[in-house]
Amino acid sequence: MPQLAGPADVPAIHGLRRSLEDWMADHGIEQWPVGSLPRERVAAQVADGQWWVVREAQGVVATVRVVRSDSEYWGDADAPAVYVHGLMVDRRASGTGLGRALVEWAAEVAVQEGLPWVRLDHRESNPTLDALYRSWGFEPVGVSDLPGFAVVLMQRPAPRRSHPTLRIDDVGLRLARSLT
Questions:
Q1: Of 42, 41, 44, nearest to 13 (Cα)?
Q2: Reported confidence tier of residue 78, pLDDT bands at 50, 70, 90
């Protein structure tokens, strides 16, 4: 189960983001440009209660930022929903299902709050992430043109009742094995 991030988690969240930015740059993946999320912005978002973390013995291994509105990317289509941002899994835990488990957890938040949609986005230039999100049941509903890049807006209905298909607890054993 993710835990609400606190001020002490800011360095770990920012550090994970920076390591993934570097990894993406090294692999030619266009999603998060190097240095695109300043530590100060992470600190402000943490103070606002937007970031959640998954901790293991080695520290923060995954994060997700959950907000209820996103006019920056969704513009006029900004509606009551759970908006997922900052979904990050440490490369040591890649392939464990932890990223999807965090999205399913966010879907449960939507159910608990009576919100109809779970929404996320990715850069239009990232077909791998598009395919992954589609495999998780998300459908593209638009494109938002921002200065220098375009973002594909994706959503899926929140489940009608609370029953996640993959819980964070379900990936714990695999995660523990992958980190040792």
A1: 42
A2: confident
User: Would the pLDDT of 126 be above 50?
Assistant: yes
Positive/negative CA dihedral, 138, 111, 53, 153: positive
Q: Is the dihedral of CA 23, 32, 109, 41 positive or negative?
A: positive
Q: Domain residue spans in the chain? A: 3-173
The domain 3-173: what is its CATH number? 3.40.630.30
- pLDDT tens digits, 10-24: 999 999 999 999 999
CA distance 131 to 129: 5
Q: Which long-range contacts (CB under 8 A, 24 or more apart) does 33-40 make?
A: 37/86, 39/10, 39/11, 39/14
Q: Which amino acid is at 170?
A: D
Give me the phi and psi of 154, to 5 degrees please. -130, 150
* Confidence at residue 159, expressed as pLDDT on a 0 to 100 scale: 87
For residue 5, what are its two tokens?
């991030």
